[in-house]
Specification:
WH_DNA-bd_sf; DNA binding; 249 residues; three-stranded antiparallel sheet; Arc Repressor Mutant, subunit A; 9 helices; 15 strands; transcription regulation; WH-like_DNA-bd_sf; DeoR/GlpR family DNA-binding transcription regulator; Rossmann fold; alpha/beta; 35% helix
């Protein structure tokens, strides 16, 4: 297959799925891994996509944000694996905060047998918490329709009344020098407050988020423990903070 045809197939895949793996591209194009790696390097240099560990993803602007439904359909296995590992950090008697992310909601099913108290600003999360008989509290405030999050001044006042043992947050980007970032100022304020009011803070993110920078910073890497499914240049991040990686089965 000529390179132009492969490039067209690769771009169609990444634009339709958001994130694609090397194996997917190899199967679709009937090409070798080395050929596809060269293609991805070429397309990245042209600004058509961004390479990530084991594949590629679309390029997004710093202020662009997917809806909750769009986020929840991506990287499902990675989110579940990360959430399961994160749940091991929660002990009986803990009071924790879960933000409105699509990875943090996956933790809830692993917490149903623990005696804990959970505060969240996630509308989707509160139903899961109730269904699993977990003591919980929903922040009050303004509803952000796209991400199903409670935000705004009232939510900030609410969260500042609490002191948490741990908080678990999502992040649109994690960058060594730029820190943890998200597209929305009001969501960033809630995340920042959660970190400030917690004894220990965790960022849950899959490998597509590393090296990404979104519009608003809510924390430095040194402020959090990173829990992920995979990470390139892990020593760079481990020099700054604790990193927990899902074990490959």
């Amino acid at each position: 297959m000529v390179s132009e045809k492969r490039h067209s197939i690769i771009l169609n895949l990444v634009n339709s799925k958001g994130v694609i793996t090397l194996s997917e591209i190899m199967n679709e194009t009937n090409s070798s891994e080395s050929t596809i790696r060269r293609d991805l390097t070429f397309l990245e240099e042209k600004g058509a996509l961004k390479r990530i560990h084991g594949g590629a993803k679309t390029i997004s602007s710093p202020s662009e944000e997917l809806t909750y439904s769009e986020k929840s359909s991506k990287n499902l296995q990675a989110k579940s694996d990360i959430a399961k590992l994160a749940s091991l950090e929660v002990n009986n008697g803990d009071s924790i905060f879960l933000d409105a992310g699509t990875t943090t909601i996956e933790i809830i099913k692993y917490l149903k047998d623990k005696n804990i108290f959970v505060v969240t600003n996630g509308l989707k999360h509160i139903d899961e918490l109730i269904d699993n008989n977990i003591n919980c509290y929903l922040l009050g405030g303004k509803i952000k329709f796209t991400t199903k999050a409670i935000i705004g001044g009232d939510a900030l006042k609410c969260i500042n009344k609490f002191r948490f043992d741990k908080c678990f947050l999502g992040s649109n980007g994690i960058h060594v020098s730029m820190g943890c970032t998200t597209p929305d100022t009001e969501e960033a304020i809630i995340k920042e407050a959660a970190i400030k009011n917690s004894k220990k803070s965790y960022i849950l993110c899959d490998d597509s988020k590393f090296g990404e920078v979104s519009l608003v910073k809510f924390g430095d890497i040194q402020d959090v423990t990173i829990i992920t499914n995979n990470i390139e240049n892990i020593s760079t991040y481990k020099n700054l903070t604790e990193v927990k990686v899902v074990e490959k089965s």
